[in-house]
Amino acid sequence: MKFKTCFLLILLFSVLATLPCNTFAESYSGLRQEYQQLMKSSQLQRQRANWDKLIARFDRFVVQQPQNKDLERALFLKARLWDGLSSASGSGRDAREAIDQYQVMAKRFPRSRLADDALFLAGQIAENKLNDQAFAYGLYQQLVAQMPAGDMVAEAKKRIAVLPAPKVPRPVVAEQDYADDRSVGDAPRLVKIRYWSGPQYTRIVLDLSAPVVAKPNYLKGENPRLYFDLLYTKVVSGLPSTIAIGNGLIRQVRASQFDGQRTRVVLDLNRVADYELTTLENPHRLVIDIKGQPTGVALSRQPPGAQVASAAADDSIASILNSSSDRQVAVHIPHKEHDEGIRLVVIDAGHGGRDPGAIGPNKTYEKNVTLAMAKALAKKLRQELGVKVLLTRSDDRYLKLRERTEYANQVGADLFISLHANATANGKASGVETYFLNLSKNNQAAEVAARENGTTLQEVGNLEAILFDLMANAKINESSRLAAEVQQSLISGLRSRYSRVNDHGVKQGPFHVLLGATMPSVLIEAGFISNSRDEKRLISSNYQKHVAAAITAGVKNYSSTIDQVAKR
Fold first, then answer.
1. Of the residues 277, 331, 540, 556, which has the maximum number of CB atoms within 10 A of its CB?
2. What is the CATH number of the domain that holds 148?
């Protein structure tokens, strides 16, 4: 028994010794010191990586220590970091993130002496960095109403006196009476309104803080309006009162606090159309699908900004995304005839920047391998198929997973291919596999999805629960055919040159990097970087070229199947 206890203790210390230093809990004092050093150094502030790294450490602190006595101060400093980053980068995205972080802090700790400072600083960002006076006005009003004893109330009142009061148009719709006069003091909130257009419908998504009862009403006629009364619901501060769509099917969406008992969301239509209303949970959403083909938008092959996204400008993702509208824009799925074939492919080199991906036994970083393969594949596709190819990244930079498919959608890609290298804990597994987006069918697929998503298995399960409203735009059948062709070509192409190339087949899973893609999309694991033999192959330029050639052959075969279907 003593021997067994000693053995377990030795094993425990061995495991602890191998853990990276950031596995252990962060201290607030250490984070504050790092924050102060960053604020004092203009040189450090020039590198975004320094901001991102410290923000990630604050994230870990918040997640790992939810009961820490310094949590409210940590949340405030985290928001200050985003505020400082937005000043350094000049990015509207960073500024909006800073506002969100300030609001999170104020919501979680409304009685903190820092809460009113947080809302005031959020208002300053909205006013001075985003030039959104209505949003700023709402934030200042929230401060005055919710924190009347705060030391920033006087300053907030000064800004309210200077700024013009936002005008919220009252929808001209039929009034209805509701007998229930339940209090809305703790009412659900309408948090955000999103939309996108497809060839057969336009989807409106209402993001909510809690479940709601929605009462639909349809006013048909010369100027049709579809509206939804969200009972006992309030509108979150700063939500735009009008969102213009103008796609020939829906003119605009309007939202306002209709009275003390309900929020009304109005869809002004160009013509009478059928609709479907779906309620979703985790998170809570109302999904409204308006049936019909949009006619008032340019469904062309060249989206705005595409003229600068030439073959020589593979890193054009930054300009495409940064030039997008501040509000949620429609993702216009290009309308294609069957005989158009494949003209534009977006290749995604997995990971990058502060995200190295998996690391091999000889310290090979997945992010470097995927970038080399992406460039080799881009060259081969251009040579063999004569298609236009764009890369989500052409250097060592960090991109959020959602930004990769967002870019592919905005440039109107016909295919999206994400390149990765697999990894396992024991290092014995080797071989190649190809994934497409769907619910995971086995535990292994879920584990791969968790690793590539940077999440846990539990979070993968949560992700599957909300896939419903994303599947409509995902080309599942086409993606599965593309995955099958690519996997078959990879195995036949690599086995003719290398020994022991294991075929792990085509699998499906809920990968973040594939969510939201409006074109056939696959994720390729070109080898196991955790396996010494595969690692040597992955860093070899010859192997990278052979992988590129095999994928190109698979794309070519897939393209021919499209032609065969079109000619039936």
1. 331
2. 1.25.40.10
